Amino acid sequence: MAACVSFACVLGFFLCSLMAGSIESRNFHDLFQPSWAFDHFIYEGELLKLRLDNSSGAGFSSKNKYLFGKVTIQIKLIAGDSAGTVTAFYMSSEGSNHNEFDFEFLGNTSGEPYSVQTNVYVNGVGNREQRLNLWFDPTKDFHSYSIFWNRRQVIFLVDETPIRVHSNLEHRGIPFPKDQAMGVYSSIWNADDWATQGGRVKTNWAHAPFIASYKGFEIDGCECPTTVATADVARKCSSDGEKKYWWDEPTMSELNLHQSHQLVWVRARHMVYDYCTDSARFPVTPAECVHHSHRHW
């Protein structure tokens, strides 16, 4: 069993080992496969590099889909002048009514802070962007980026620090993603029509190739083989009298006090855009923004 480095560690390693779940911490080929531009993949032992040039970017996807749990990848982002590029790490289901949780790392000109944009799609509806400047240089070393997901909340984490929480507000009539298994994906691509300063700064191909490096692929979730019918997925991945998943433990239903303080710090010091406060885009405040507790911290 892989070392317990997820949120479940607040319960202690012993309890982690008793909880049901599919704990996987392996090299790239065990969990993932290239999706496109196979010639833009560079393998160096346990290290994977994706290459972007003026002919193509590249992307990969998980071999399986998952419902609930935690996914972590360590990434070292594009160094130097990365303006116009996007490195994405996300989970997504399929179809027009899909659910999706996005990390998008937006390239910058040298010397500027590196920004990360998060987004949440529920039943095919997104437009829930939040953007913050990272408090470190993500091009100098590897940092861990994680998505934690259970029936109560979705948490985006950077080096185990929560930067965003999307809570289940179904009791308020607001849909929550809880019944569609998701694949795990990452890609590097050119998005100079919007990625850097709203598209004003374009990709400088003289600096290509642009390289994003990956390691530490880890998935601790309920695996949903394609042979499992959609109607059976939620039942398979729910705790009951016979099995208990660590992400269903009461301590996983909300942030603890320390994590709440971390989130307050991130939002106060590093957030530069929140769709909840963009009255030009949303003259009527989105319903989840009214009720999410982080609006009142």
Structure commentary:
The protein is mainly β. 12% of the residues lie in helices and 37% in strands. It contains five helices and 16 strands. The chain has helices at 13-18, 28-31, 230-236, 257-270, 287-291; strands at 22-26, 32-36, 41-44, 47-52, 58-62, 65-76, 85-92, 100-106, 115-121, 130-133, 143-149, 153-158, 161-167, 183-190, 210-224, 271-274. The strands form two sheets. Strands 1, 3, 4, 6, 11, 12, 13 and 15 form an eight-stranded antiparallel β-sheet that branches. The chain has an eight-stranded antiparallel β-sheet with strand order 2-5-14-7-8-9-10-16. The chain is globular and about 60 Å long. Mean pLDDT is 87; it is low at 1-18.
Features:
single chain; 297 residues; mainly beta; eight-stranded antiparallel sheet; disordered N terminus
Q: What's the N-to-C terminus distance?
A: 38 Å
**What is the helix fraction of residues, given as a range?**
10-25%
Count of DSSP strands = 16
Our Rg estimate from Cα atoms comes to 19 Å
Series of H and E elements: HEHEEEEEEEEEEEEEEHHEH
Largest sheet: 8 strands, antiparallel
Instruction: Estimate the mean pLDDT confidence.
Output: 87
Assign an overall shape.
Answer: globular
Which regions contain 5 or more consecutive residues with pLDDT less than 50?
1-18
Q: By helix and strand content, what is the structural category?
A: mainly beta
Strand content: 35-45%
Number of helical segments with 4 or more residues: 5
